Amino acid sequence: MKYIIASDFHIKYTDRPKDIAYRKDIEGFFAGLVGKIDGLILAGDFFDFWMEWDSKIIKNYANICDVFRDLKNSGCRMIFLVGNHELWVGDYLANTVGFEVYRECFSEVINNKKIFISHGHQYIKKDFRYLFLKKLLSMKFVKSLAHRLPKRLSLFVADTISTVNPNSSKSQKIATYTHETLHEKAKEISSDYDLIVFGHSHILQQEVFDKCTYINCGLWEKDRAYCLFTEDNINIVGNKLL
Ligand SMILES: [Mn+2]
């Protein structure tokens, strides 16, 4: 069974030319996988911000959802791990696109290997910005207010909140801490698994602990890398190689 595991695409819904081009590129990448893979696992933060209103979604995410539906219809198993940028994922991706949606982690034996996949943000105890946002976004009145505001206004607020300057020294400190914490976590549970994949750190990594391979797919925009997982191979590859 040929599986692809990838994370942290952080696709934005905005109409900036750069964001439109990035979305198109990713739609093309996934369209190219139709009929070629048996499983797709998205390990979190595929969307930079997700919101849904009953059965409606952000319109600039409609194309990629169509591509995912084509993948699903081609017989591909679709698994979606919710990242910290997607806390408002509701039923749409499961009911309308056909993903199996997991909020914490996904673990199963596939290709005779025991795998453990998680976005990983829940293991980062000292990321106070995330903890604050999580608390705010889990409040019922915040969610209901956001859903009653005009769409454009809620989306503008969301875009402002979710945009972080990755070069600030504070961001870099959090990035290093995140990277080290996830590496430690993987090491700690490595004796129970053959493959562990986390996202969130945005730092591309592949390491073998005894018989367990730990992979972090990095940041798609920068690395364009995913984990290719078959009966006889586990590896990070660039998207040009499939
Ligand atoms: Mn994340």
- The name of the CATH superfamily reads Metallo-dependent phosphatases
- Under CATH at level 1, the class stands as Alpha Beta
Query: What is the count of DSSP helices, taking H or I runs of 4+ residues?
Result: 8
**CATH fold label:** Purple Acid Phosphatase, chain A, domain 2
Order of helices and strands: EHEEEHEHEEEHHHHEEEHEE
What is the gyration radius calculated from CA atoms? 17 Å
What distance separates the N and C termini? 15 Å
Gross geometry: globular
Average pLDDT metric: 91
Would you identify the CATH architecture? 4-Layer Sandwich
Poorly predicted ranges (pLDDT <50, ≥5 residues)?
none
Report strand order across the widest sheet.
6-5-2-1-12-13
Report the biggest beta sheet as strand number plus sense, adding barrel if it closes. 6 strands, mixed
Number of strands: 13
* Beta-strand proportion: 15-25%
Quick gist of this model?
With 242 residues, the chain is of the alpha/beta class. It has helices spanning 17-31, 62-73, 92-97, 128-138, 140-148, 151-162, 169-189, 220-223, and strands spanning 3-6, 39-42, 52-53, 56-57, 77-81, 100-102, 106-110, 113-118, 195-198, 204-209, 212-217, 225-230, 233-238.
Topology:
Layout: E1 3-6, H1 17-31, E2 39-42, E3 52-53, E4 56-57, H2 62-73, E5 77-81, H3 92-97, E6 100-102, E7 106-110, E8 113-118, H4 128-138, H5 140-148, H6 151-162, H7 169-189, E9 195-198, E10 204-209, E11 212-217, H8 220-223, E12 225-230, E13 233-238
Parallel strand pairs: 1-2, 2-5, 5-6, 8-9, 9-11
Antiparallel strand pairs: 1-12, 3-4, 7-8, 10-11, 12-13
The chain binds manganese (II) ion (MN).
